[in-house]
Specification:
Layout (H helix, E strand, L loop, with lengths): L1 H8 L22 H17 L10 E3 L6 H19 L4 E11 L2 E9 L3 H17 L8
Parallel strand pairs: 1-2
Antiparallel strand pairs: 2-3
Length: 140
């Protein structure tokens, strides 16, 4: 499933970090437009999925900058997981943390699944998502 989502954005990179002489360095606050855009998109995810973020967890902490397509990929993948819940293939779906760390996405969710093959499939999808959504320019 994640392959299908990622293929939509293959070759498309809408990066929102500034053109710096040193591409591996970004100082937050250097570009207000960039920070506002990423903050707005993160807030949209928080609002959309707030009922799935249990008390004590912060849900999303993606920061700025990250490629805009990452927000879309995350959103589509979460929709896919919610569809699995609607189909009773998983239950008790919760978002604990989705964050950027060391230039890559970390995706922490919780769910119940009685079907071991389905659980393995979902975990493989999450692993691929984390491995794919990485950029060394985001290590700052």
């Amino acid at each position: 499933m994640i392959n299908k989502i990622l293929q939509k954005y293959e070759g498309y990179r809408d990066y929102w970090y500034p053109d710096l002489k040193e591409p591996n360095v970004y100082i937050s606050g250097r570009d207000e437009t960039l920070d506002k855009k990423c903050h707005k998109l993160e807030n949209n995810l928080l609002k959309k999925y707030k009922e799935y973020i249990p008390k004590g967890w912060y849900g999303f902490s993606l920061g700025s900058p990250i490629p805009l397509d990452w927000f879309k990929i995350i959103d589509e993948f979460l929709e896919y997981l919610l569809d699995l819940q609607k189909s009773d293939l998983i239950s008790k779906f919760e978002i604990h943390q989705i964050k950027l760390k060391f230039g890559g996405l970390r995706f922490y969710v919780s769910y119940s699944c009685d079907d071991e093959e389905m659980r393995e499939f979902i975990e493989l999808q999450i692993d691929k998502l984390e491995r794919t959504l990485y950029d060394s320019k985001l290590v700052y």
